[in-house]
Each structure stands twice: as C-alpha cells, then as structure tokens.
Amino acid sequence: MEHPGASSGRLSVSVVAPCYNEEEGLREFWRRVTAACQDTVKQDYEIILVDDGSKDGTWSIIEALSECDSRVIGVRLFRNHGHQMAATAGLSVARGDRVMLIDADLQDPPELLKPMMGTMDLGADVVYGKRTSREGETWFKLLTAATFYRFLTHLTTVPIPHDAGDFRLMDRRVVEALLAMPERQRFIRGMVSWIGGRQVALPYERNARFAGTTKYPLQKMVRFAVDAITSFSTVPLRVASWLGAGTAIIAFFLVIYTVWQWSQGATVTGWASVVTALAIFSGAQLLVLGILGEYLGRLFQEIKGRPLFLVDTVLIRGVPHGLPADFSSLRPSEQRNILALYRQVSEIQDCREHDQETDGINEIRRHA
Prior knowledge:
Elements: E1 11-19, H1 26-41, E2 45-51, H2 58-68, E3 72-77, H3 83-93, E4 96-101, H4 113-121, E5 126-134, H5 139-155, E6 168-171, H6 172-179, H7 188-195, E7 199-206, H8 218-232, H9 235-263, H10 271-304, E8 311-316, E9 319-321, H11 332-367
Parallel strand pairs: 1-2, 1-4, 2-3, 5-7
Antiparallel strand pairs: 3-8, 4-6, 5-6, 8-9
Helix pairs in contact: 9-10
C-alpha cells in the first residue's frame, strides 16, 4: 500500500532505532512501533532500523521487514560504531517532520509516541522521556546512573535533565541542528539540551528488556561518562590547574623545610617525609597529565576529520543501495537529495516487479 510522501516528501514522523544484536526482540519491536505509529499518524510514518555491526541475525530480520513493509528503512553500518553514532546515522536518513529516537530493546515503550506528539502539538521542540522507575536494573546501575547525572549537572553549564536517556521526540529544526554538529565524541542527550528550545519531560516507567542482555557493560558506561564530561565541561582542566597550584604551594614550603633541616645538620633523617612528598607530587602530576591526555586525545580525533560513520547498505522497499563514503560529512540537504533519488529508484523497481507479476498472472489466466 502506498503512503503519503512516498518518494521524497516529508512524513509526519520517523522512528529511529539503533540495533546491535537484537534478533530476539526485533520483530516484536517492529510490531509495537507499527501499531503505535498507525494509532497516532495513520500511515504517514517510517521506521528506520540501524544495524550497528551486529554479529547475530539482526540484519537478516531487517531485510525481511523491509521487504514486507515499505515503511521500514534498513541502514547497515560497515562496523560497530557505537550507539551514539548509529543513532546519528539513523537521524541523517530520517525525513519526518518529527523524529522519535528509541532503542530497540523495548525498555522504552513505543506507545508513548502519541502523548509525545500531543505535547509537541502544544509547542514543545523536544519531548524527552523521564524515567520514574527502571525495572530489571541492578542497584549498582541505578546508583551509578543517578550519581553520574547529578555530578554532571555540577560540571556543565548546560542543563542536562536527570534520569533521561536518548528516548525522545524531536522536531525537524532540532534534528537539523543536531546533525550540523560535527563532533565525533557524541553525547546526544547533552547535545540536544545544548540546542535549547522548549524541552518538556514526559514521566514514564522504564520496563525490563524484552529479550537479550544489556549492551552497556561497566567499561562502556565509564567510557560514555568520560565522553559526556569531556564533551560538555572544562571543569576537570580547571581542577587540574588548582591541583597543580596546590601542590606547588606545598612543594614551596617543603623546600623551605628541607633547607632548614639541612642547616641544622639533620638531612639524614626525614626519609619518610621525602617518600611521602614524592608520592603526593607524582600522583598529582600523573592525574593532571591524565586529564590533559583525555582532552588532547579527543582533540586529536576531531582534527583527523574522519567520517562520523560509514554506511554499508541502505534498504528501501527491500532494495539495497550503497551510500558515498563521505555521506556523514555531507550537508543534510545533500543527504536528503541522495536518499530521495534512491527512494525513487526503489519505487520504480517495485512498480516494475509488480507489473511483471501482474502480467504473469494474466498470462496464466489466458492459458487456463
């Protein structure tokens, strides 16, 4: 069945979902998102599923869904670029006037699309989900997440909401502004907060995963937290400066003390204080160097200017297309033109196959 804006026009809403090893729950995710979209905007929507280098059968399921549902757009990245880059790749393909960003694990209920759309109709630019409870999470995850967001609030000048992930509905202006940001260490929820506009929270209860295991082990959580802090705050650098100044003052008094001890002929004694001082100064220096290294490393990544992500295949109506290697570096208007062309090609091919199938059926009927 055709739907409005099938070739290159805008749709009412796009749903973008990064997927990594989600074969167990992906069909259920598609079923619930489809029902939520049809209940909200009838047929005027699209679902963009981004395979972030999955090692299981996620891509095969996306291929099957794209063949049976023309509203499913499949995006396959060349490798695992990480959740934030996969989400960015999906946003660059989306053509809806509004875009819902949601994970495919069904922890965030797709059925909230309707109340989010209603809130946005009242003038909001962004409607984000605010978790009032989190089913299936360990006490360690809950504690560290709550601590991190409250700590981050004190480090940044951008008001990043507490207890909110990337689950949100954004209008087209916000999406365009987000895509115009070229940084590679992406912290999308913080970047959206930085954009501003009227951002409204929608409280909800977060469910346990429908299937599979979390894709955010402790190591990834720590890396994500470091990215968030270094992307939105220079306070650690300021702390390093104050730490360096403090240790310099202590060192000054220690030098005075050492000279005084030498003048009294007591330089042999005091080895304990020397070792202690060395340990303090060495630790402070390593800490400062580590903070500087984190920022320099990110600066190095930015200077290289590599593409944000590389797309292997885009599936439109089940027809695979390749994208240019510099697709992520193109302006949003150029990206839209390329995808509009691919959509037209897919529609033409789809029509030809339909005509051939119809001709075959008619031929069979004539001979029957």
